[in-house]
Hints:
The complex is a heterodimer. By secondary structure, chain A is mainly alpha-helical. Chain A has two domains: about 5-60, no CATH class; about 70-275, MetI-like fold. Helix content of chain A is about 70%, strand content about 0%. Chain A has helices at about 10-40, 40-45, 60-70, 75-105, 110-120, 130-140, 145-150, 155-165, 170-180, 185-195, 195-215, 215-220, 230-240, 245-265, 265-275. In chain A, α3 (about 60-70) packs across α14 (about 245-265), α11 (about 195-215) crosses α15 and α13 (about 230-240) runs antiparallel to α14. Chain A starts with 9 loop residues before the first helix and ends with a helix. Mean pLDDT of chain A is about 85; it is low at about 1-5. Chain B folds into two domains: about 1-50, no CATH class; about 65-310, Orthogonal Bundle (MetI-like fold). Chain B is built from 13 helices and two strands. Chain B has helices at about 1-10, 15-50, 65-70, 75-105, 110-125, 125-135, 145-150, 165-190, 195-200, 205-235, 240-245, 260-270, 275-300; strands spanning about 50, 60. Chain B has a two-stranded antiparallel sheet with strand order 1-2. The longest helix of chain B has about 35 residues, at about 15-50. The radius of gyration of chain B is 25 Å and the shape is flat. The N and C termini of chain B lie far apart (about 55 Å).
Amino acid sequence: xxxxxxxxxxxxxxxxxxxxLAGAVVMIMPFVWMTSTACKPDIELNKxxxxxxxxxxxxxxxxxxxxxxxxxxxRYLLNSAIVTIGRTLGQLVTCSLAAYGFARFQFPGxxxxxxxxxxxLMVPFQAILIPEYILIRELGWLDSFRALIxxxxxxxxxxxxxxxxFLQIPLEIEEAATIDGANPLRVLWHVTLPMSVPAxxxxxxxxxxxxxxxxxxxxxxSSTPDTRVVTIGIALLQGERRxxxxxxMMGSFLATVPMMVLFLMLQRYFIAGISMGGxxx
Amino acid sequence: MTTAILNWLGPTPLxxxxxxxxxxxxxxxxxxxxxxFGLPVLxxxxxxxxxxxxxxxxxxxxxxNFERLLYEDSFEQALTNTFKxxxxxxxxxxxxxxxxxLLLNLPLRGRGVLRALYFLPVVTSTVAASVVWTGIFQPRxxxxxxxxxxxxxxxxxxxxxxxxVLIPVAVVAVWQRVGFDMVIFLAxxxxxxxxxxxxALIDGAGRWQRFRHVTLPMLSPTxxLVVVLAxxxxxxxxxxxxxxxxxxxxGGVGGSATTLTYYxxxxxxxxxxxxxxxxxxxxxxxxxxxxxxxxxxxxxxxVYYESEEG
Lengths: 281, 310
């Protein structure tokens, strides 16, 4: 719109910063409140006026108390990690194979099948929640990691995203490898995938984020502590009315930090993923 | 017979080999998608025609479940709540995101950091965010109550009052969505050619005129996409309602916070009314589909595409 900051007069610049900073404060405030409350001793929870920095921070004690209240909380974090890694690796395998197949091979019914897959993108998960549950129950998969990982290892969104990325790669490069006698799997592994690293990274961070934060599906298919993920663990703490706010915030903190760290490290891939797809699944 | 199959695969041995490779490559994902997501779509129709609960075997009842939707007040309430929530969430998130994107598109120092700050809520778990915001909206001891205290609103029971409960739910949804929309808007703003602004400047257009006659029309495809995604997303709001009303009355006092998704979840998994809940799910699906089609039609009328220019 404007080419350099010289074009903006100083008062305008100050005004822009003021608006942007005020907005940013609102966006960040819940994180600050969460962290500060997570470290407050019980007696400070209801002290007025509100303290942003606890008088006597007791982060470690509250962490211990959280594990007293919810002894399996570490297990939930671990389960979330297992489910997240499982789904992401699963999608990486199934979707890069399929994306490569759709991008580079001609076979009967290809366009129809691809259109069917994309059609599934239009179905909101909530609309098939009940039959999904019945299906998982009929398979005997309730309360198992199979239920949490396997259906999530397939994705129409990732298929679409990766196919777009693979189509960007010049055909000649792949053909050169094919002439050298490499079979399609080797071409995919040695040529196509290494050339698609930005797209793969963007897809991976979005998948990780969605899997880690998933709530409704695990809520329906898992009800035992062995397969409970951390989002359900927090909801259980919240449902228990006696759970004090500092422990709730500590639990939320533990569930939030991994994604925040991931985001801060891989920011541009998150943003690329959203811009590329515009859809989250 | 075999030649028919061979010809179906392709005219030459090489093309047949490639066809087989292609099918083998797409098979795992396609079969998985069809089994875990395609099949449930078909099953959804089946379950909605049955009376089906946890104990008794399913019994075919035709359209009874859909008929029930017509006179169940609770369904009407869930539908109304969902539309109210959309009316609260969608305009707010779009206006805020557009404003932030326009400002962050200016050549300001430190805009990378600001952009990251605005995006941070997007990567946060909605469940954790809802817990934190429940604390913020707490009467008397929450931060919001502290801020509103001087106005005599410090004791407001946001999550209990039936007329207010959708506001905190909407706030969390907007807070988590602004960064997402902002990123799409920023990507859209990047695609507007600078030449257009230069031309407008030469024509003596002021700041507002450039915004009104260049930015806004050029941004309309992006705006359209953001609106569609925002509406579809708001129809599916569940986590916030589930978590934020858990400590008071689940679903809000008198069902005041019950959205369509929450309603179908409760009917299916608390009341074991799978058939009835499936009918609700199909209605949800149909509405989302209708919204998409409707918006696609509207789009033709007002969205400006560069390609149509010539």
